[in-house]
C-alpha cells in the first residue's frame, strides 16, 4: 500500500468507483466496507502521491490542529484512513465514480491542498437534477396518498411510464425518516436504476446491494436497489434487518420465480411483525387481482389498496407479426418463403390447449427465427435514424453466439450481448452510445426484459421464447428447455422501445399464437425442484414448525407430492436432523424406505406414476402397492400441524417438522447447489476443505473452468487461432490426444 493506505480486505465484486466487476480490496475504514478494484486503488494512490508532494508546505500549518493521513504525507499514528476513497483530498477521481458517501453526482469544488475532507454528509440536501416529465408524475399525490393510507399498494402502468425510476424518488423526497428497499429480479435492472439515481444527483442517498459481495452506499443511503435473490436471503436469515425499513417495493412482480413468490410470502409475514412497514407492488403486466386477493386474505380488504393505473407509454409503438415479415418486399424470396412456412407451423402450435402451447417449441423453429432476425435487424438498421439501436430477444447463449458470429467483421455494427453468464462490465456497454455511423446491435435474453431503459433502442425483434426450468416427474430430474413466453413477457419486451421516440417491434411469431398464449406466467414453485427452497425456509422456522403449512401460505401453493419429494431428497443428502442416537442411525435406512413408500402412495394417487427409489435401495424389494398403514399411522409418529399427518404419512410428517443438521445449516448458508455444498461439507469433515472448495467452485461455473475459443469473446482472429492451437496442444500433451 502506498501513502494514505487504509485497512483493507481482499474481495471480488463490483468496484464502488468504476462499477466494473473485478478482484479488489474492501476499505474497512468506510461504512459498508465498499470494494475498490486494484487499478482504482493504484490510480488513487498515484494521484495522492503527486498532490501531497506539492501540498506538503501548505498542509504543514494545518497538521498541528487537524492531522489526517490524506491531508499530508506524514504517517497516521494508527495507519488508518477514515476518508472514503472517492472523496480523499487530492485523489484523481473521475466524476463518474459512484463513491459510497458522495453528497451528489455533481462534485464540489476541488479541495485546497492540505484541507481535510470529512466522510460525513453535508447538511445541505444533494443537488437534485429535475428529469423530464413522465406519465407517472401526474399521479404523484395519489400514489403518496394510497401508500400512506394502506399497508399494501399495487401500481400498474405501461412500460416506459416511469414507475421504476420515479415512485421510489417520490417516497424518498417526502420523508426524512424514510428507508426504502427496491427489489429487482435482475442484476442489470438494479444496476441501471441505481445509475439513473446517481445521474439525477441522489449520490449520497442511494445504494446498491446484490450478490457477489456488491455493497455500494454508506450510512447516509436511504434508498437501496437490491436483487430479488439478495433480499430473499436477507429476510430469510436476518429479518430484523427490515425493522428500520419504511417501504418495501417489489418491482416487476409479473416475473414469477420461486424467490419472488417467497418474497411475497415473507413480505406478508413482515407486515404483521412491523406495523410501520408499507409494501408496494409494481409492474406493467402483473396479475393484479391475484396479488390483491392474496394480501387481502391476510390483512383485510381495507389494508390493501385498489390497483392504481398510472398512465400509458410515452410514444407510440408499431407491432409487426411474422405474417407482416413474410410480406416484406425487401426480404430475399427465399426468406419470404421461410417466413410463410414458419407462420403455418406456428399457427399449428396455436391449436394446442393453452396449458400445452408453451412446451411446443422446436429446434427448426428456432433456426428459422434466428435467420429471419438477422435479416430484419440489418434492414431495420439501414432505415433507422442516426444513433438508433436494435434490440433482439433470444432464448439463450447459443443464440447470442450464433448472431455474434454472423455479424463478426462488419464495421457498421457494434455487437453488445446481455446474458447472466457474461461479464457484467461487457453488458453495461448496452447503455453507452455507439460511435458515429455505427448501429448498436443488442442481443439479450430475458435479462433485459424489464426495468432496463435503453433510450436509443428504436427497434425490438422478439423471438418470443426463453430457456425455462421445469421438473420431469417421470425422470425425477430438472429439465432446461426452450418455451414460448406468456403474453405479459411479450408486452414487457415490446416496452423496451418507444422511450424517447416512436418505436417498432417485430414479433417473429404469428398473431394467432400470441392470442393463444396464457396471459401470465404460472408459479414456478409448482414446476421446479423445491429442495433449495425448503432448505431456505427450514432455516427461517423454529423446530417443530411445518414447512408444508408455511408453503400453503404462498400465492400458489405447490403440490404436496413435490414437497414430500424434496423433503426426502434433503434427508438422503443428510441435511435433516432426526436424532443422533445409535438406534436412530440404525433405523435410518428403514425410515427412508418408509418415507419413500409414503411418497410413492401420493404419486400413485395423484399421477399414477411409480416414483424411482431416491434412497438408493432396490425397487424390486418394494411391494407393488405400498400402503400407509402401521408405522405411518398418526399413532405411530405423525406430527400435528403437518399436512402429511392428515394423509397418514408419519415419516414424511416428521421430516416436515425436523431441524437441520450441521451439514444442512452449512448448505443453507452457501450460495451453491445443494450437492456442491455437500461436497464442501464432506471436505471439511475429511480434512481436505481446500480441495473440496476448489472442486465445488469449478463445478458451480456454468461453463468448464478450462479456456475455450469463442468468436463472441475473442474478436481478434489471431487471438482466436492462437487459443485453438494452445488448447489442441494441451489436450495432446495431457489427454494423450
TrEMBL record:
Mitochondrion in keyword set: no
GO terms assigned for molecular function: ATP binding; helicase activity; RNA binding
Domain of life: Eukaryota
InterPro entries reported for this sequence: DEAD/DEAH_box_helicase_dom (IPR011545), Helicase-assoc_dom (IPR007502), Helicase_ATP-bd (IPR014001), Helicase_C-like (IPR001650), P-loop_NTPase (IPR027417)
Keywords, ordered alphabetically: ATP-binding, Nucleotide-binding
Compositionally biased residues, Low complexity: 105-117, 625-637
Ranges annotated as spanning the membrane: none
Polar residues biased stretches: 118-131
Domain Helicase C-terminal: 369-555
SMART domains: DEXDc (SM00487), HA2 (SM00847), HELICc (SM00490)
Gene3D superfamilies associated with the record: 1.20.120.1080, P-loop containing nucleotide triphosphate hydrolases
Domain spans labelled Helicase ATP-binding: 144-304
Annotated region (Disordered), positions in chain: 105-131, 610-637
Name used for this protein in its record: RNA helicase
Organism expressing this protein natively: Haptolina brevifila
Taxonomic lineage: Eukaryota, Haptista, Haptophyta, Prymnesiophyceae, Prymnesiales
